[in-house]
């Protein structure tokens, strides 16, 4: 019997999950839940209902796992703990600093209700976290570096849009090639924020706006830009739409360590992703871990989990014997 | 209480494990077992006994996990199933085609005796297998490629040494840069054996040997060399010792897939390692999984496991809360 999946939230991520499920023959989309008026939402899958979230409880016994596709700022901190009362759930909560708090909250409610939750699934946190963990355990004497990009940062793009006189903007985070090479070399140097990444901004200004002031406001914005070398390009709205409508991203986790009697052998492990679509890739990761979520639930493994707790085999449709024969 | 570890076999791998344990404060080397006369073996660790393997049964209650450091050709097919009678064990069995058979054999004896075994731990099989698994589950519509090198292949070096007139030899497996680029590009082309790797041989010939014949025998050797573009260099014994005594290796696992409504977004995931010492790196992986082996045993998870069955968190000395806070 196939795994019955619900999606909550139909933005970029929710749409990505809808498509990802098509690539997984053992999963079946049962319903898409939304806070909006369902009549205004047109989805890509035939014969699947769009349901207002107020009615979600009625779906309690019709869904094996609910994939939460809301944002980390305000949606998930409430939604995950709320819906784990009724469902096994999985989310992509990505505010690193608040993960412990989110985990504890979800864990408590999940255990009370005999459900399984997996939080912070995606590529960072998620696959990159796994790379950091494997890297540190295998090369305990060493150092790791995480780089992001080249890719669009939604948070930084939003920050620029809040500046007076800015009509629209896209910000790219770019890893510095020389810094990547230093990391790979294994000399284990410290790299500063400025050394590791640059930021490139494409900005559509309102007519008559003071471009010099906008540029200065961007470059000096605390936390977002002041610690980086930032380039600002003013472009037309047409150019922005034509050349900067996609959401590519990427990144690198590099662990270097040394082994041998006096550390004479350098060992370098690198994991990297290069993504044409950040939300669609995150959606693919969520789909695979949704399968694992249902398996953990069937094993009576209730409570909150992260990618660290999931045996890799649980992500696969294949059984153990098949995996050992074909992939190991 | 620290994990009490035994090592069976004191070749390159066993020596690597001995050193790896120094980097893991929660593990303690209790004894090294050998088929040789213990008096002839000098180890790097003070106050640790070297014991003939005939006495290993006496150590039954003094060791939490035994790390088997023998070879895959003749040692491990017998040893792993034999010693799992008395110990939790872990090995680096790397003959891919025989893994299912080895697994079944070890699994049966491990279950009978209430012990835990993890087989085929290292980087391939091992970390590369994990990358292939994660890659296929996350991008079900796609293709993966595994490349090896640049590095010394012991099997191929041995094969050359068996040729008449050859005194010594080292063979490097080298991934072809253009093929790597094709794999990364995501066009999902098939790559032939010849396209993916070349082989470079450094050969010390006996005095007066027929070099042309040796070169021809190498290049036409079935399975080992005939499907590859192979280069043969004849060098002096001094040169071989000076320039080719190390055991570097490396490799790449590349998974590319497409997402979106009509596959319009390419997604590329790559894992690669660059190792100054192949056996020392494999030893590091074994040490981390030895920790996981003991944890699985304490969870009453008896029988044979592979890297696919181990929750990543089990490799770490840190608890769940600490991992979520610092690495996730």
UniProtKB/TrEMBL annotation, chains A, B:
Protein's UniProt keywords contain Amino-acid biosynthesis: yes
EC number assigned by the record: 1.4.1.16
Subunit note: Homodimer.
Record lineage: Bacteria, Bacillati, Bacillota, Negativicutes, Veillonellales
Keywords on record: Amino-acid biosynthesis, Diaminopimelate biosynthesis, Lysine biosynthesis, NADP, Nucleotide-binding, Oxidoreductase
Pathway this chain belongs to: Amino-acid biosynthesis; L-lysine biosynthesis via DAP pathway; DL-2,6-diaminopimelate from (S)-tetrahydrodipicolinate: step 1/1
Span of domain Meso-diaminopimelate D-dehydrogenase C-terminal: 122-277
SUPFAM superfamilies in the record: Glyceraldehyde-3-phosphate dehydrogenase-like, C-terminal domain (SSF55347), NAD(P)-binding Rossmann-fold domains (SSF51735)
Residue positions binding NADP(+): 10-13, 34-36, 69-72, 92-94, 121-125
Pfam families: DAPDH_C
Gene Ontology terms describing biological process: diaminopimelate biosynthetic process; lysine biosynthetic process via diaminopimelate
Stretches assigned to coiled coil: none
Positions contributing to substrate binding: 148, 173, 199, 249, 278
MF terms in GO: diaminopimelate dehydrogenase activity; nucleotide binding
Top enzyme class: oxidoreductase
Organism of this sequence: Dialister micraerophilus DSM 19965
Family: Belongs to the diaminopimelate dehydrogenase family.
Name the UniProt record assigns to this protein: Meso-diaminopimelate D-dehydrogenase
Catalyzed chemical reaction(s): meso-2,6-diaminopimelate + NADP(+) + H2O = (S)-2-amino-6-oxoheptanedioate + NH4(+) + NADPH + H(+)
